[in-house]
């Protein structure tokens, strides 16, 4: 019984998977850092709204950069799939780290975090930005070759 087959194709699959997880984790780290740091620069009276707006604006270049890193060596994955994976990684890290360390100590809950419209808007943004990157930077260039 072979549990882990590291033939050439499987090595590539494992490396692509690790690379995707690494890029998704980097996007999450930068996003959470920007969200948290925004509380220390009071621009608006509502600090929570300010943090969500900053995160919403900054997710666009973060996901775009992540797509650029991903597609630099690999043009196989569809942008919709990549966006879903990036969002899934972010949601998993939020469940494992953000909610228990930042939300629950401040009176929030898993339920309040994951039913918040802002969470789902940012998730949709992850998917749309990755899809747009794929369409304009990968799909159209592949058709022109």
The topology string of helices and strands comes to HHHHH
User: Which strand-content bin applies to the residues?
Assistant: under 5%
Number of helix segments?
5
Using only C-alpha atoms, the radius of gyration works out to: 17 Å
Q: Which secondary-structure class do the elements indicate?
A: mainly alpha
- The percentage helix is over 70%
Main beta sheet: none
Estimate nothing, just give the exact number of structural domains.
1
Secondary-structure map with pairings?
Layout: H1 8-37, H2 47-71, H3 79-103, H4 110-114, H5 117-144
Overview of this protein structure:
- There is one protein chain.
- Helix 2 runs parallel beside helix 5.
- The model is unreliable at 1-6 (pLDDT under 50).
- Helices cover 78% and strands 0% of the residues.
- It has one domain.
- It is built from 5 helices and no strands.
- With 145 residues, the protein is mostly helical.
- The protein has helices at residues 8-37, 47-71, 79-103, 110-114, 117-144.
- The chain crosses the membrane at residues 21-43, 49-67, 79-105, 117-136.
- It holds the Pfam family DUF5367.
- Keywords: Membrane, Transmembrane, Transmembrane helix.
């Amino acid at each position: 019984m072979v549990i882990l087959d590291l033939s050439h194709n499987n090595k590539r699959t494992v490396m692509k998977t690790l690379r995707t997880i690494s890029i998704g984790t980097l996007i999450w780290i930068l996003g959470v850092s920007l969200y948290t740091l925004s509380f220390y620069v009071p621009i608006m009276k509502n600090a929570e709204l300010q943090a969500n707006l900053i995160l919403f604006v900054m997710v666009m270049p973060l996901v775009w950069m992540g797509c650029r890193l991903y597609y630099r060596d690999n043009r196989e994955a569809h942008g919709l799939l990549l966006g879903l994976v990036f969002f899934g990684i972010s949601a998993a890290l939020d469940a494992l780290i953000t909610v228990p360390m930042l939300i629950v100590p401040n009176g929030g809950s898993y339920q309040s975090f994951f039913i918040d419209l802002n969470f789902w808007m940012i998730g949709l943004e992850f998917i749309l930005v990755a899809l747009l990157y794929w369409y304009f930077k990968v799909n159209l260039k592949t058709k022109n070759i």
